[in-house]
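Example 3.2
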Amino acid sequence: MFRLVGVLTLLMMLSAVPAHAHGAPTDPASRAFLCSPGQTTASSSPCRSAIQAGLPSKEWDNIRLPNVAGQDAARVPDGKLCSAGIAKYAGLDLPSAEWPATKLKSTAFTYRATIPHQGSFRFYVTRDGYSPTRALRWADLEQFLSVPTPPLVNGSYEFEVRLPKRTGRHVIYTVWQNTDTPDTYYSCTDVEIAAPAAAPAPAPAPVPAPAPEAKPAATATVPTSSSAAPSTSNSSPPRPVPVASTTEQPPSSTTRFGLAAVVAALGGLAVLGGIMLWRKRIL
């Protein structure tokens, strides 16, 4: 009898112990994780408000609903996505631009599994125009990655993600749907996405060195032949045609004959003149 009472008492004590938590994003970290004990961000204004509203900060990895079966939008209402509609986590839905945000430095995401489960992950990011001061809705989200049953590495699930083109303040929304339990887990993660670095300006093209100035080629003076036509330029009078010298070209036979005839005639005139002078003296 006493043994039966002891067993019943033990069962009652075990039922009073809260259920173990199972997992949540830690890099970049979820709102619940950043509000957990030991985190410097737990003293932020939104975390203090959430804790005052009843947030069980030690159960940062237990935001889960049973039997959702992929019908997330039907089970989790707009404005309550971060809490999954669970009343004690309602402080996580507080619209505020003061939620601690992780500056994304890489595309590697880590989801810590305090109790591993088999299941698939779906990742969403807020669309352009998102404002952290407005309650989060399903229409604000765009799914960018789905990973079925990833391997567990050192107690965590690790992902290499490729975000859609975004800049500035956004929320990463993570859904972990178990296949070995009926539970689905939900998390909101605030991030700051830097603008892509501007491409460096192209280097200016090298200016080619000026080519050395070509010296004018020496121009040979060509003597004008006797048959060349006189210049028609009005700037200078026509030059006389030079006569070829005997050193340059020997006289032709006609020229030699003419010269001999002239010499002979001159000689005859001289003889005739001498004869006439002689006769004049005699007479």
